[in-house]
Amino acid sequence: MTDAICVKNITKVYRIPTVLPWKPAKLTKALQNVSFACPREKISCLLGPNGAGKTTIIKILAGLILPDAGDATTLGTVLSKTPLNFRVKVGLSTPNERSFYWRLTGYQNLDFYASLYGLAGKIKRDRISEVLDEVDLSGDSLKPYRLYSAGMKQKLLLARALLCRPDILLLDEPTTHLDPIVRSAIHKLIRERFIGQRKTSILLCTHDLTEAQELADHLIFLNEGQVRAEGTLSALRAKIQPHIRLILEFDQLPRRDWEKSLPILGLKYENKRIELEVSEKNTIPDIVHSVVTAGGRLLSCRHHEESLNDIFTRLSGGGIS
Amino acid sequence: MKFFAFMKKDFLITISYRFAIFLRFGGMFVSLLMLYYIGKTFSGNISPYLSRYGGNYFPYVLVGMSVSSFVTVGLGALAREVRSAQVEGTLEALLSTPTSIYTILIGNSLWTFIMALIHTLFFLVLGVLFLKLTIMPAQAMFGFLILILTFAAFLSIGMLSAAFIMIFKQGNPIQFIFGTSSYFLGGVLFPVEILPGPFQFIAAFLPISHAVKAIRELLLARVEIYEIFPLIFKLVIFIVIVTPVSIMFFQYAVKRAKRDGSLVQY
């Protein structure tokens, strides 16, 4: 099965005009030979700091910016050769609350955009009701858009992206500026409805690590216009932390020779705490047995995993290529 | 269908600003009265230029103003729509639907065209009902066709304007050149014939000159329809020459804006 999105060697250079018109424009490389793939019916998360090139990628995939080099395929179709009508398969949601008409109601806004997707009559009305129900906005659909809260505006953006029943959803910062409760509701919506029921493939771009950790099945780390790493969270973690790190806390430390004959890769004492690394999980029972036999009064033993924050910091610093 | 959606959207937005509608029609009524009294001041065959059109300045200038409202719409609507869609942020959302940029531009301009038509009809109806203006229905119908041609001619120039806005965001030389010259040289408020020779030469290349003259001949001088065919022919020639150039230039502007990543910047 082909990937939902496959980006191949995309490069994009922006000309930034200088203040003085006679000075040549500065060239900024927004994307340099960017390649990655997003699996079908999964949430792929494009993660990176501000200015990493995430929005440029989303806009290239939506056909709003032309790349200088490279190409992409969506569901196997080459983007540069995609006819206008194929775009109905891709839904875009950008964090631009001004992209609706403020004097119209939520329903009237969706009605207008549904017409631009070629929907008419009963099909259009049913589709609007369907997406409004889906994002839980039916009760507020007749309110003027200008009276919507930030969360309702975000939900309407998602509803608009769903109007064309897309196979691929491009979500650019879908929960920016939202409170934790609305954020959580939108995460649930994305996970349960868009992936669970609709089986949509999603490319979500964010710099919010918690959001990425909660939602992403597949991560793409972008920094300074380059893909630093790509894969599942566990695969990325394995890249920067190839061994298993254990933290043992004691009421009383064991004798110092407890670790002899055990395949321990690194060991560090810190007050009544021991941090160690092993390569295999099946050595953990032996370790626990050894420390107890050596007189240690063990309070806890936990497996320490690098957080996404740690991974992100390491990758943003160029730790992994 | 998509054009209808644009018109419905703009209609709903327009009626949501009720006070503005009231003021607009009030303003139109006041302008009409002003033109009427200016006409009355200069009535009585004072000017030999007006004798062909019944010697009354009021209907003469009313026709000029009606055509000029279509010129304003045709010339400025596309550029204004591009600019407001850039500033409001709707252009990106519109372009991410399967709708061509031309449908978006023309669709967004249709309501202003209808408003200009309502404006003109309002002028004419009030003129006929209360200010002794006489217009024959058959001639009015043909006049309407000339207005559509005028709108099309200025729409093609307006597309060039929109291309400039697409690239440079602000600063529009086309609007400056055609807008200013059309009102001054196009015979809206006074006949082209009273201008010096070089200005009359330039006026011959402006579509508004031919449109205004054709409608005045038709409605006020009451000539036979075939007699204004040469004027209509000039309008058509203008449309045929300028439209393809405008479309090519606009296509280039969209491609360049997409390449620069500046499509929705302002």
Present the secondary structure layout.
The complex is a heterodimer of chains A (321) and B (266).
Chain A: E1 5-16, E2 26-38, E3 43-47, H1 54-61, E4 69-74, E5 77-78, E6 90-93, H2 106-116, H3 121-134, H4 150-162, E7 168-172, H5 180-197, E8 201-206, H6 209-215, E9 218-223, E10 226-231, H7 233-240, E11 244-252, E12 264-270, E13 273-278, H8 284-293, E14 297-304, H9 308-316
Helix pairs in contact in A: 2-3, 3-4
Chain B: H1 2-16, H2 18-41, H3 48-51, H4 57-88, H5 90-95, H6 101-130, H7 137-168, H8 173-185, H9 197-203, H10 207-219, H11 229-260
Give a written overview of the molecule.
The complex is a heterodimer of chains A (321) and B (266). Helices cover 31% and strands 30% of the residues of chain A. In chain A, a hairpin with a 2-residue loop joins strand 9 (218-223) and strand 10. The longest helix of chain A has 18 residues, at 180-197. Chain A has 2 domains: 38-63 and 84-238, 3-Layer(aba) Sandwich (Rossmann fold); 242-304, Alpha-Beta Plaits (2-Layer Sandwich). Chain A is built from 9 helices and 14 strands. Chain A has a 6-stranded mixed β-sheet, with helices on both faces. In chain A, strands 2-1-4-5 form a 4-stranded antiparallel β-sheet, covered by helices on one side. In chain A, helix 2 (106-116) crosses helix 3. By secondary structure, chain A is of the alpha/beta class. Chain B has one domain. Chain B has helices spanning 2-16, 18-41, 48-51, 57-88, 90-95, 101-130, 137-168, 173-185, 197-203, 207-219, 229-260. The radius of gyration of chain B is 20 Å and the shape is globular.
The quaternary organization reads as heterodimer
* Terminal Cα span of chain B: 30 Å
What's the average pLDDT of chain B? 81
Profile the largest sheet of chain B: none
What proportion strand of chain B? Answer: under 5%
Which tags fit this structure?
heterodimer, A: about 325 residues, Rossmann fold, Alpha-Beta Plaits, 6-stranded mixed beta sheet, 4-stranded antiparallel beta sheet, 9 helices, 14 strands, about 30% helix, about 30% strand, elongated, B: about 270 residues, mainly alpha
